[in-house]
Amino acid sequence: MTDSTTNRGSMTLESELSSVDPVEAKAEGLAREAGFDEDTSSQIAMVVREAVINAILHGNKKDPAKQVHVSYELNDEALRIKVADEGPGLDPDSVPDPLAPENILRSSGRGIFLMKAIMDEVHFHQLNPGTEIELIKHRVKKELSA
């Protein structure tokens, strides 16, 4: 069996918001390399940015002793990006529904909702310590014309 991976790598970030921009740029570049259109590429970059910000603010609580780990893989089937923090862990089911009437005016709490709306798959993995979020966007196979 051959490995169809065309691009794989990882980044380790400090728990500070200035770490976010290079990851967002990398995600957008990978999305474009995957053949996604400009809007979809921007949306993927925004979702990855949100995941990293959540890892820094909510996971690691901006603790300079903790890091955020990002890995990515682009293959024939999909773009897969994982963002992991070193915090106490997150139960995604405990995050309030941003569409519930009592939460509509809240300024936060929409990140996971957006991730699920934009990506094809969103998975949470509990680490020890930390939480990893796996974001997957499937590539569209181009039909060969006869």
Question: Overview of this structure, please?
Answer:
- The longest helix is centred in the first third of the chain and has 22 residues, at 38-59.
- The protein has three helices and five strands, in the order βααββαββ.
- 30% of the residues lie in helices and 25% in strands.
- It is of the alpha+beta class and 146 residues long.
- The model has no long low-confidence stretch (mean pLDDT 86).
- Strands 1-2-3-5-4 form a five-stranded antiparallel sheet, covered by helices on one side.
- Helix 1 packs antiparallel against helix 2.
- A hairpin with a 4-residue loop joins strand 4 and strand 5.
- The radius of gyration is 16 Å and the shape is globular.
Summarize the structure.
With 146 residues, this protein is of the alpha+beta class.
Strands, helices and their partners?
Layout: E1 7-14, H1 20-33, H2 38-59, E2 67-74, E3 78-84, H3 111-118, E4 121-126, E5 131-138
Antiparallel strand pairs: 1-2, 2-3, 3-5, 4-5
What percentage of the residues does DSSP assign to strands (E)?
25-35%
From N to C, what is the helix and strand string?
A: EHHEEHEE
Give the helix level as a range of percent: 25-40%
- Poorly predicted parts: none
The major beta sheet can be summarized as: 5 strands, antiparallel
Radius of gyration, Cα only, in angstroms?
16 Å
Secondary-structure class: alpha+beta
- Give the termini distance in whole angstroms: 28 Å
**SS summary, helix count:** 3
Count of beta strands:
5
CATH A-level architecture: 2-Layer Sandwich
